[in-house]
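ingest -> validate -> predict -> emit
validate: passed (alphabet ok, no gaps, 534 aa)
predict: started
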Amino acid sequence: MVTSTDRLVSLHEWLGMVDGSLTTLATIHYNLFLGSLLRLDPHRTVDLTPFTRLRRCGTVLITELGYGNNAAELETTAVHQPGTDTFVLHTPSAGAQKFMPNTGPAGGSKSGLVAARLIVRGQDCGVFLFLVPLRDERGPLPGIRIRPLSQTPGSAVDHAITSFDQVVLDRSALLAGDHADLTAEGAFRSAIGSRRRRFLRSIQRVTTGKLCLAAAALGGARAGLTVAVRYAHRRHTFAPASRTGVPVFAYRCHQTRLLGAAARAYAATFLLREVTRRAGTGREDPASAEAEVLVAAAKGWITWQARDIVLECRERCGAQGLLSANRIVDLITPIESTITAEGDNLVIWTKAAADMLTGRGYSPPAAPAAPAGPLTGRAALLDLLVRHELSCLRYARGRISLPSDSPLDRWNQAVNPALDLVDAYATRCAAQAFLAAADRVADEDTRRLLEQVFRLFVLQRLAPHAGPLLADGHLTAEAVRDLAPAVDRAGAELAPHALALVEAFAIPDDLLQAPIATDGYAAAYDDPAGPWQP
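emit:
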C-alpha cells in the first residue's frame, strides 16, 4: 500500500470520514515515515518488520520552532565523527527544537525520521533525514527531551516539542537515498550540487502527503454532505398555505447551497482522481516542476473547498449540526489540519504562483478561438473558465512588471493576483477532470445528470468573476444578469436528484453513524443508550 499512491489516497479518503486523529497518525506512519524509508533506503538495510507490524510507531521530525516553511534552513545538526564513524545529533538552540511531531507517549515505542544538517569535515552538506529511536515503553531514550504541547481541540494526537542533546547515532542512521553518499573514508559525495535540492529530494514524500491530506479532507466533506442532505429531507418547516409543512430542502435557498456544495465535492473528487492517476502512473515525475505546481494547486483547492463544504453543511443542519453525535462539527478540526499540514495552503500556493508566473511547471491553456456562447453548453462554460485563467495570468504578469523599490515590493504588487491565477488554474483543471469523468460514463441518464452538476459548479464559480469577464468582452450584460437566475434553474433541475447524488458517495450507515441522517432520529432522544446521551 505504501508504494501504491492510489491505494494510499483511497485509505485516507475513508479515514477522513471516520476519525481525524487516526488519519493524522496514519499519514505520518505510512506515508511520511514508511514511504520515506522505502525511498531513501534502496538497499533495504533497515528492518521494517517492527513498523509494518506496528510494534513501533514511526513519526517524522522536520519543522522547528524557528523554521517553518523555510525548513531547508533549519538548525538541528548531525556531525559526522570520523574516528567512530558515527553522527552526533544535537539541537543547538531553543528555536531548533522540533515542533509538533507526535513523539508523546501515546502509541508506545517510537522511532522518527529527523531532519538535520549533515556536517562532514566541517562542511555543511545540507539537510538529510536520520532514522532515530526516540522512546521505548519506559519513556524517551537518553539525550532526547520530549515535552507535550497544549491540546489541539478536536484532536487526540500527542503532539510535542522534541530536542536532542549530543545523541550518538550509527552510520546506518543516515538516509541519503540514491542522491548522496558518505564513503568509508568519510568523504561526502552527491550528484546534486544544490543543498536545497538535496533536502527537497529527501522529503519528497511530502508531495504524496499533499494528495493524502486532500483525500482525507474530501472524504470528510462527502460525509458531511450526506448527513446534511439527508437531514434536509427529514426536517420539516412551515410553508405558505400549508398545514403540514414541507422539508427544509423544498426551499430554493437551502437547495442551491447544499447542491452547490455537492457540485464542488464532485469537482474536487474528479480533480483528486486525475492528479492521483497522473502521479501514480508516472505521467508526472513527483519531483518535476509540473507535478509540484499541479499537486500544490490541487491540495490547496480541495482542502479549502472541503472546509467550505463542511461549514455550509454545519449551518444547514442548525443546532443539530453542533452536536458531536451528528458528526459534522467533529469534521471541521481535522479538515483545518489538512489546510496547514504538508505545507500551509497559502504558502504552497504562493510558491506555485511564483512558478506559474515564470513559466516553471505551467503552460497556459490555449485561448478559445470562438466567442463565448450561451451559458448552457459545457464547451462554452469551460471556455469561460479558460478565459478567466488567461485574464488572471495577464493581470498578474502586468502587476509584477510595474516599477518597484525592491524585489519584495515587486512581488507584493503581484502576489494576490497571482494567487487568483492558481485558483483559476485549479478550477479549470477540476472542470476538465469533471467532464472527462462524465464522458467515461456509459449510462446516458447518469452522464446527463453529471453534466447538470458540472453546469451548477461552473456557474457558481464564474459568478464572482462576472465583472472582469464582462469588461473583457467575454460575457454580455444580458448573460451577467442571467447568472443568478441560471444558478437557480440549475439547482431546481438537480433538486429531485439530491439524495441520489449523496448516495453515490457510497458511505455505509454504520460508518456514517449520524442519527439525523436516519429515519426516526427524533425517537432516539428517548433511548437511554442512544447517541445523544453524554
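The mean pLDDT is 92.
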